[in-house]
Design goal:
The chain is an alpha/beta fold and about 800 residues long. It is about 45% helix and about 15% strand. Helix 13 (about 340-355) packs across helix 14 and helix 26 (about 685-695) packs across helix 30 (about 780-790).
């Protein structure tokens, strides 16, 4: 039976942790588990069969960490040979077991951050995953499993590679931290928005935490998901005993919690690190007869950024209109001169003013719109945490933006013209998004509300052919200038009423169009805006920096009982002095770092150097600015992409200070030396690289030994360089023994050297059991430990 049909009939079960069992079978510290597909295929097959006999319906091929960044192109341990051997072993295990089961081609993360935060291009990540899938499908697996993804952007690259290169069901499983967030800031809602937009077949969570910790997060996903969900937790939290990694939940406790999760409505259940065949057996026994809950369609209009989900609903939202060259001479100049930082500044200003979404339009005859749209989207989507509206009539620009967008975008727009729908709807279907439907067609813009609604219905009907639901369409009733037709405002307002009350759909409007050709346009705009909100307008494209418009918006929400206890109104106006629009000004050095504006940070530093001493700039401006960002990161108000962009801005500022010191004959003083490394057998260097950037910004001399580093190399470097602090990183359970071995050697050879550790598989208690001096839960914690250590050091 087709796996997706089976999931509708009963609970379906995955296997458990391959790596944990391979360690029991003799996998050495730092040894790549995937190599056993070739060297010890019988052992791998035996583990698969153990899980099958325990009741697993799906077994994951031992291919999780195999990619071209880690293995050779040719030879015994080539990517192709390992991938194909892994799938073949799983298929043979199913056949030998005599069970009717399914094989998943298991695909894990590359271990790198994607640009602009890291050094791996999105398209290069796509090619890495494409290669894996093309090799894997040659052995006829049943499912593509993309798992343990801590970055939605990387997951998207893998999903597109799967969707475009095979026709197998695609299961995607993300990894959350204790705060319910992805490494790059996404949450349960933003995961569902993007994955459903990309038409993933099964969405879920795995690894990182045990079932008890993941239970509330999968619960939140159930509230918003219209797609079946899966959960493959760890066997609780890890610790080290006698050089082995063990977990704190036994099979009975694991199964009991999984039964609770099955009762909630999760369709597919299994295990990850530390879960044995016994864990799966008891889970199957308790959960196999749990009644299937029908997956209900959630009528939620959701768009998302890398970190945030925005609902388009009764409570209206603001779409900032300032990233658009129309009528903006300075913005046109910025696009022509490739001044992306000006665009980013416009974006940040609008978000500060209250925009929930930013419209992005870069269409100019003088430039290549598709190239510029791609460039702006790449930079902008990590500079601000709000979703973006891709605004273009150029389908090449639209596709390039949607392909690279890290989330579920708002798409502006489609209309009732046949050729436009034929171009736009396939893109919406493929990449996901909420599309703006303009009430116009080949015959132009109807002069009546009835005529506009007729076009809206035509668009809705055509969208259905592509599987695009009504919830993913918002109707633009079109605001036409009253200076040309004084009845046009009433037509627009009547259209909004019908959209709300008869179509039961959401609406959007470019509000300021209403006043073209009139003096003091804000008088008309602000009143019309209030009238449109009263008729049910859900999303308004306006300038959020304009106080008249924002006063209408905030007042409407307060008077419509959308502002609890009037707190938004009070926060905004309790201390306001006068009626004023925000004006463009030069950003301070501190703000440029907090907002991650690298070019402005360089310029501002040069300005400061003309009037202040270098050390004063470092101690009173640069370090305090980084501290602000670090505090925001710890409190969850700033996410990893923003943290890294701020770090890059600070680095640019520090470089200017350094250059000044060199020219004046002074030397830059480093606080202390720190060695960092990803341990033997592990190629995942995301965490390590983030730590490096931050430590260097705080003035430390960081010796980065890279990834897959032998313990002896670390020890010898510490001795040679007289280093007092080492940072070790590991992502995989199978590589933590290498970390423990490294710490033992450091303690023996250089007992006065302190060691801090971090990584997805570690906890504070686990760090203690392997004798680490400090567990750094994130990069800022590493900085805090270094600051404390070197301040008290002689």
């Amino acid at each position: 039976m087709d796996i997706l049909k089976l999931i509708k009939k009963r609970k379906v079960f995955f296997d458990g942790g391959m790596g944990s069992l391979l360690q029991e079978k003799g996998l050495k510290a730092g040894e790549f588990p995937e190599m056993w597909n070739v060297d010890k295929s019988d052992v791998v097959k035996d583990i698969h069969k153990e899980y099958l006999l325990s009741g697993a319906d799906i077994i994951s091929a031992n291919t999780f960490g195999c990619n071209s960044l880690k293995f050779d192109k040719e030879g015994t341990y080539s990517v192709e040979n390992i991938i194909r051997s892994g799938v073949r072993n799983a298929k043979e295990a199913v056949k030998e077991s005599g069970k009717d089961a399914y094989v998943a081609l298991d695909i894990g993360p590359t271990g790198k951050l994607l640009k602009p935060l890291g050094d791996l291009d999105f398209n290069d990540a796509y090619e890495i995953y494409k290669e894996i899938i093309l090799f894997g499908v040659k052995e006829n697996p049943d499912i593509i499993l993309i798992e343990t993804m801590s970055d939605g952007y990387e997951a998207k690259a893998a999903i597109l590679a799967a969707k475009e290169n095979c026709d197998l069901p695609v299961f995607v499983s993300m990894t959350l931290g204790e705060d319910g967030k992805l490494l790059t800031g996404g949450n349960a809602e933003s995961i569902i928005a993007m994955m459903e937009g990309l038409r993933v077949d099964i969405i879920g969570l795995n690894c990182g935490l045990g079932p008890l910790q993941l239970k509330p997060f999968i619960g939140k996903m159930l509230e918003v998901s219209s797609t079946p969900l899966m959960l493959n937790p760890n066997a609780g939290l890890p610790r080290s005993e006698g050089g082995k990694t063990v977990y704190d939940i036994n099979s009975g406790e694991f199964a009991f919690t999984m039964k609770e999760i099955a009762d909630m409505g999760v369709s597919v259940l299994g295990g990850c690190c530390g879960t044995t065949p016994e864990h799966i057996k008891k889970t199957v026994e308790l959960c196999k007869y749990v009644e299937i809950k029908e997956i209900t369609k959630k009528d939620l209009t959701m768009i998302s950024s890398f970190s945030k989900c925005v609902y388009i609903d009764k409570d209206p939202i603001i779409i900032g209109e300032r990233i658009n060259p129309t009528g903006k001479k300075r913005f046109k100049q910025a696009l022509i001169e490739d001044d992306i930082e000006y665009v980013l500044n416009e974006a940040n200003t609008q978000v500060e003013a209250g925009a929930h979404v930013l419209d992005v339009n870069v269409g100019l005859p003088e430039i290549n719109e598709a190239e510029m749209m791609e460039k702006v989207i790449k930079e902008l989507q990590f500079s601000v945490d709000v979703p973006l509206q891709v605004d273009t009539s150029n389908t090449e620009a639209m596709e390039r933006a949607l392909r690279l967008y890290n989330g579920k975008a708002l798409i502006n727009s489609v209309n009732g013209k046949k050729e436009v729908m034929d171009e736009v709807f396939p893109l919406v279907k493929k990449y996901g998004g909420v599309v703006v439907a303009l009430c116009l067609d080949e015959d132009g813009i109807p002069s009546t509300a009835k005529g506009r609604i007729k076009i809206a219905n035509k668009i809705i009907k055509e969208a259905e052919k592509y599987g695009i639901e009504r919830k993913d369409i918002i109707i633009d009733a079109l605001a036409m200038t009253v200076s040309a037709d004084t009845s046009s405002a009433l037509v627009t307002l009547d259209t909004l009423s019908i959209v709300k009350n008869e179509l039961k759909m959401n609406s959007v409007l470019g509000v300021s169009n209403i006043s073209f050709g009139l003096p003091n346009r804000m008088i008309i705009n602000s009143v019309f805006f209030a009238m449109a909100l009263d008729r049910g307008l859900n999303a308004a494209i306006i300038n959020p920096n304009n106080e008249d418009m924002m006063r209408s918006y905030i007042s409407f929400r307060t008077l419509s009982d959308m502002d609890e206890k009037c707190m938004d109104y009070i926060d905004k106006y309790a201390s306001e002095k006068g009626n004023r629009d925000k004006k463009e000004g030069l950003m301070s050095l501190e703000d440029s770092i907090v907002k991650g504006m690298k070019e402005r940070a360089k310029t501002a530093t040069l300005e400061e150097l003309e009037k202040s001493e270098p050390l004063e700039i470092i101690n009173k401006k640069l370090i305090p600015s980084l501290d602000i960002v670090g505090k925001g990161f710890e409190e969850g108000t700033i996410f990893l992409p923003q943290l890294l962009m701020s770090a890059e801005a600070a680095k640019a500022a520090f470089n200017e200070v350094k250059n000044h010191l060199v020219k004046s004959g002074q030397k830059e003083e480093k606080i202390g030396k720190i060695v960092i490394a990803t341990v033997k057998g592990d190629i995942h260097d995301i965490g390590k690289n983030i730590v490096k950037v931050l430590l260097e910004n705080y003035g430390y001399d960081v010796i980065d030994l890279g990834k897959d580093v032998d313990p002896d190399l670390i020890v010898n470097t510490v001795i040679k360089e007289d280093v007092k602090l080492v940072g070790l990183s590991a992502l995989m359970t199978t590589t933590v023994p290498s970390m423990e071995e490294t710490i033992k050697k450091l303690n023996k050879k250089v007992p006065d050297c302190k060691v801090f550790v971090g990584g997805a598989v570690l906890t504070k208690d686990y760090a203690k059991t392997i004798n680490a001096d400090y567990y750094a839960k994130d990069a800022m914690a590493s900085v805090a430990y270094a600051e404390n250590l070197f301040k008290v050091a002689p």
